[in-house]
Design goal:
This protein is an alpha+beta fold and 420 residues long. It folds into 3 domains: 1-157, Beta Polymerase, domain 2 (2-Layer Sandwich), CATH 3.30.460.10; 248-363, no CATH class; 371-419, no CATH class. It has 23 helices and 11 strands. It has helices at residues 8-14, 17-32, 42-49, 64-75, 121-126, 153-158, 169-172, 175-187, 193-201, 211-222, 227-236, 240-243, 251-264, 271-278, 284-293, 298-311, 314-317, 324-331, 336-345, 349-360, 371-376, 383-397, 404-419; strands at residues 36-40, 56-61, 78-82, 87-92, 95-101, 103-106, 115-118, 136-138, 147-148, 161-162, 190-191. Strand 6 (103-106) and strand 7 (115-118) form a beta hairpin. Helix 13 (251-264) runs antiparallel to helix 14 (271-278). The longest helix has 16 residues, at 17-32. Bound molecules: adenosine-5'-triphosphate (ATP). The site of adenosine-5'-triphosphate has 9 residues, from helix 8. Adenosine-5'-triphosphate (ATP) is lined by residues 41-42, 55, 128-129, 133, 173, 175-176.
Length: 420
């Protein structure tokens, strides 16, 4: 029998008191209902690594919804349930905990969503992606804090290895290929040699995955601290190639991602900006292929389209004699991440300066007068109202008027000129 590893001290030390007390109570309530309760997955991995992770995932051998409901009453929390999967989310104060009923999964065909059956913890852990994510911690009082490690997760953590649980893993679900690269690069681990062989063998299986699921994995990557590391590795292994053959995870991308982070600090860059940089070198046609492969939602698709079309305007933007209103008209119908991506990609300090002017000031320039005001000033309704408003806007952008009064004076002067 293997030695019992007690992690209760680690839990106390690494997790906030409120979550620790919550888990103690949850274990007691589960035991009183005759159910078993475990802390599972990423948080257990990160407890052992000493990394911060407050996303508690609990697995119940029994009924997750019943247990979550009882705990919602005790904590005066809000609960959201998914009876079809027998899962629940409990939220209170600033905390959120996921409850799942232990389940096993089988796959009818590669890339399909799994068929789900309720089952034991062991089966639940076996359906997971990598051994380092298969560890669990007992929460019922009699065994509170004991580590459950059926698939060698701790040993792989110690040896810094990402290992699948069986040789069909990537065939069942090729999103695990991207997930594996994400963990490898985030943790600075290595794909275990046999897993690496399987991954290379199964790269064509990526084509069995729906656009939505691939996009979800890509978004998770773009939320990592250094997404470029994952993309570089993905290029090396021809995984990126499968997304689109012309994408590159090279040094240029790393440099631009770093600049995007500096610009967005203290926030992370928006996914759209990272995506625009990743797709920067694509042609129109290629970017349409990427949009459809990833089934990008409207706004992200627009960002990519704007990014590519703006590349052709960079030369005009590099003209130092450009008036502010001309800068405005070149950029005003492009999405901000597309504009920022082009600024980062441009080598011209003038173009960068013009883009900065647009983003920081020109896009916010508003007129004091509106169409009704012009009518009140005696201008007949019709297309000229729109034209005058546009001319006024231009005058404001170029600093020819700087105040509300100035707008009125200008309109009156135009009217007088027209009548004279
Ligand atoms: P992270 O690992 O990114 O810190 P996490 O561990 O909470 O966060 P999630 O993506 O929320 O990761 O997934 C929760 C758990 O579900 C993971 O620990 C993983 O083992 C498992 N899982 C997620 N996606 C898959 C998948 N495609 N195949 C198998 N297991 C998966």
């Amino acid at each position: 029998m293997s030695k019992i590893i007690d992690l209760s001290h680690r839990i106390e030390k690494q997790l906030p008191t409120e979550l620790v007390s919550f888990m103690r109570v949850a274990g007691e309530v589960a035991a009183s209902q005759g159910q078993s309760l475990y802390l599972v997955g990423g948080v257990v991995r990160d407890l052992l690594l000493g990394r911060t992770n407050l996303d508690l995932d609990l697995v119940v051998e029994g009924n997750a919804i019943n247990l979550a409901q009882q705990l919602a009453q005790i904590n005066q929390g809000k609960i959201t349930t998914h009876p079809r999967f027998n899962t629940a989310k409990l939220q209170w104060n600033k905390w959120s905990v996921d409850f799942a009923t232990a389940r096993s999964e089988t796959y009818d065909k590669p890339g399909a969503l799994p068929r789900v059956k309720h089952g034991s913890l062991a089966r639940d852990l076996f359906r997971r992606d990598f051994t380092i994510n298969t560890m669990a911690i007992e929460l019922v009082p009699s065994r509170y804090g004991e580590l459950i490690d059926r698939y060698g997760g701790r040993n792989d953590l110690e040896h810094e290895l990402i290992r699948v649980l069986h040789k069909k893993s990537f065939i069942d679900d090729a999103t695990r290929i991207w997930r594996g690269l994400r963990y490898e690069q985030r943790l600075d681990f290595q794909l275990e040699p046999n897993t690496l062989q399987l991954l290379k063998r199964d790269i064509p299986m990526l084509d069995t995955i729906s656009g939505d699921r691939i996009r979800h994995e890509l978004e998770l990557i773009l939320k990592e601290k250094y997404p470029e590391k994952v993309l570089r590795r993905a290029e090396e292994l021809y995984v990126l190639h499968r997304l689109h053959p012309t994408l590159k995870g090279n040094g240029w991308l790393a440099e631009k991602f770093e600049q995007a982070r500096q610009l967005s600090y203290p926030n992370l860059p928006p996914v759209g900006l990272y995506l625009a940089l990743l797709a920067y070198s694509l042609t129109n046609e290629e970017s349409e292929q990427l949009i459809s492969r990833l089934r990008l939602p409207k706004s992200l698709a627009q960002t990519l389209r704007d990014t590519i079309s703006l590349k052709t305007k960079l030369e005009s933007l590099a003209n130092p004699k450009l008036t502010p209103s001309s800068v405005y008209y070149l950029l005003h119908d492009c999405s901000p991440p597309a504009i920022t991506a082009n600024s980062l990609a441009s080598d011209s300090p003038v173009a960068q300066q013009n883009i900065k002017l647009f983003l920081n000031r020109l896009r916010y320039v508003k007129l004091a007068l509106n169409g009704d005001d012009l009518v009140r000033m005696g201008i007949p309704t019709g297309p000229q109202i729109k034209e005058i408003l546009q001319l006024l806007h231009e005058a404001r952008l170029d600093g020819k008027v700087t105040s509300n009064q100035g707008e009125e004076v200008l309109v009156k002067r135009w009217v007088n000129l027209a009548n004279s």
